[in-house]
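Question (not urgent): is this output format expected?
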Amino acid sequence: MSDKKKVLIINRRAPYGRSNARDSLDVALTCGVFEMPISLLFADDGIFQLLGGHQAKDIGQKNLSANLAALPMYDIDQLFVCESSLNTHGLASDQLDHNPTVVDQNAIQQLIQSHDVVLTF
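Got this back:
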């Protein structure tokens, strides 16, 4: 059995305007370097991080797409998206990049309970 802590990172903020999204991905990649089991949950406005076609340079920021694309290189492939957040924002999972698994509130509770560390951004 691995002695490495399982980490769940919950992304609740939009991709731009604050550093939350970039910070959460930096934490995920850093944990990945140390081969920690990482899962990412995108909820609330955080689901917008998974939409493609960001024009971040138009608002003077770096695009998060490169950070998200790097996740598999760090063996981070457990991506989840909150079903109720998709419904709230009128989005479907097939509109999102990176093929996240859609989870309902019960699955989110189980996800949180199955991890040793939960970080919310």
